[in-house]
Write a structure and sequence with these properties.
Number of strands: 2
Largest sheet: 2 strands, antiparallel
Radius of gyration: 19 Å
Number of domains: 1
Order of helices and strands: HHHHEEHH
CATH class: Mainly Alpha
Strand content: 5-15%
CATH topology: Arc Repressor Mutant, subunit A
Number of helices: 6
Helix content: over 70%
CATH architecture: Orthogonal Bundle
CATH superfamily: Winged helix-like DNA-binding domain superfamily/Winged helix DNA-binding domain
Shape: globular
Length: 145
């Protein structure tokens, strides 16, 4: 039947989208319990993984404007979660690093998110958990560039 595989993909997208959105919303809410936005938590995580990254590079990675990213970083600095350091080779450039307070905040968010997700996974049957486990690599590929 012509078009059937496309309809299967569209049907899967229609079924999957609300579930992904609801899980994402709940994980964002867990970050907010720590007193920062999900966007700020994402930025902290990226800075932790890439110490010394600049605001411009971070803006590029997050696909946002440099002024918008600069505003986020200024807010994180004011909260004591991120610190800037001068680049030894280029004094005009500064690199970003997560502070000890930022690391504690990120760890709190990670624990809250994992606890929430683990509690939900525990409610599933072993077969359902296995299905989620098997789907994880494919779900990760959905968000690859």
């Amino acid at each position: 039947m012509p078009g059937a595989p496309e309809n299967d993909v569209i049907g899967l997208a229609e079924a999957l989208r609300p579930a992904i959105l609801r899980v994402s919303r709940r994980l964002r809410q867990e970050a907010q319990k720590a007193g920062i936005s999900a966007q700020d938590a994402l930025l902290l995580g990226h800075i932790r993984k890439h110490p010394g990254i600049g605001v411009s590079a971070l803006a590029e990675v997050e696909r946002t404007s440099k002024p918008t990213m600069s505003a986020h970083i200024k807010r994180l600095e004011a909260a004591g979660l991120v610190a800037r350091s001068s680049d030894a080779e280029d004094g005009r450039r500064s690199g970003l690093a997560i502070t000890p307070s930022g690391a504690r905040t990120l760890e709190l968010i990670r624990r809250q998110r994992n606890d929430w997700l683990a509690a939900r996974l525990a409610r599933l049957s072993p077969a359902e958990r296995e299905a989620v486990s098997e789907a994880t690599p494919a779900l990760l590929r959905l968000v690859e560039p």
